[in-house]
Amino acid sequence: MKFEVLKQYPPNIEQIKKVFNLTEKDILEKGICFAYGMTLFNPSGLLIPHHLNVHELIHQQEQLKIGVEEWWDKYIEDKDFRLEQELMAYSAQYQFAKSKMNNKQAKYFLTQIAMEMSGKTYGFGLDYGIIENKIRNYNKHK
Q: If pLDDT is split at 50, 70 and 90, which confidence band does 141 have?
């Protein structure tokens, strides 16, 4: 699947900002994107790396399975669902990036995305090392 990419915010941005404690500055400076069905909202307009596109395509596939609004409602309200969705997406992102990198680069990349996922934005309350292990081993348990 592919996205139509728009340089704007998704329709549920106020709810997202509130739940994830995101500011407009965070979104624009970090180049945060939002999959919303067939649209990828990219408010910063920054170039979307291929590995991030892979991540967002996983969210798109899951949204289309259960319904976009239903997915977003569950993602925002249910931390366990959100964790599973992000592990699925970050694992695919890591596997894609790893296939393009040497081992040292892949390890560094995994460290970066595990730090991002274990940070305060998602609110999982899990240690970075646990998240890193879960991303690395996600597909081995499926």
A: low
Whether the CB-CB separation of 93 and 54 falls below 8 Å is answered with: yes
* Of residues 136, 55, 62, the one with CA closest to residue 89: 55
Confirm if 14 and 23 have CB atoms less than 8 A apart: no
Burial letters for 12-39: b for 16+ Cβ neighbours within 10 Å, e otherwise? bbeebeeebeeeeeebeeeebbbbbbeb
Average pLDDT over residues 114-133: 94
> What is the SS3 string spanning the chain?
CCCEEECCCCCCHHHHHHHHCCCHHHHHHHCCCEEECCEEECCCCCCCCHHHHHHHHHHHHHHHHHCHHHHHHHHHHCHHHHHHHHHHHHHHHHHHHHCCCCHHHHHHHHHHHHHHHHCCCCCCCCCHHHHHHHHHHHHHHC
Average pLDDT of the residues in 41-67: 97
- Report residue 30 as tokens: 């970090």
